[in-house]
Description:
The protein is α+β, with helices and mostly antiparallel strands and 192 residues long. Among the domains are: 55-115, Double Stranded RNA Binding Domain, CATH 3.30.160.20; 117-189, Ribosomal Protein S5, domain 2. Helix content is 22%, strand content 30%. It contains 4 helices and 8 strands. Helix 3 crosses helix 4. It is elongated.
Amino acid sequence: MSEAPTTTETPTTPEATPAPEAAATPARRPAPRGKRPERAPRTQKPRERERQEFEQRIIEIRRVVRVVSGGRRFSFSVAMVIGDQNGRVGVGLGKATDTALAIEKAIRNAKKNMITIKRTESGSIPFDVQSRTDSSEIALIPSKGRGLVAGSAVRTVLEFGGVTDTVAKILTRSKSKLSIARATVNALKKLS
């Protein structure tokens, strides 16, 4: 019995030979219906934001509607407080048809209306002061060792101005944060 030599031949047809790149990368499953496909993790580190000159906070944002012939026009009014928490603070108002533009205008207005606060060595105010602006009346009283006791927009203005050990009282029923913030700035102006 003689054995015939066996040779294994690979077929040369294109559908039988595997593609070299298909073997190198794993097959990607289609995403389940309604879900996004998985992404590779981020390789870049998130950029650090540069420190701004002033801290800023929006205290009030309103959508204002003006009725004109043919419909209504919408605009935004933004009240903002900025400060360096080291004795300088400002309140600004910006109005525009877009919120981003209104915020930018409010920042510019607050920088223009910036004041420097006269403070004691402990960061408090030197004496009692009262102020009235529009329909808002507030009182600021120094109180050693109590920290900052204030509410509403008064607290924001005093925090950004770097004032501590002070008690603030809103003496009217006005809920307008803009007029309360302006009354606080006027009271702080009286300290100079």
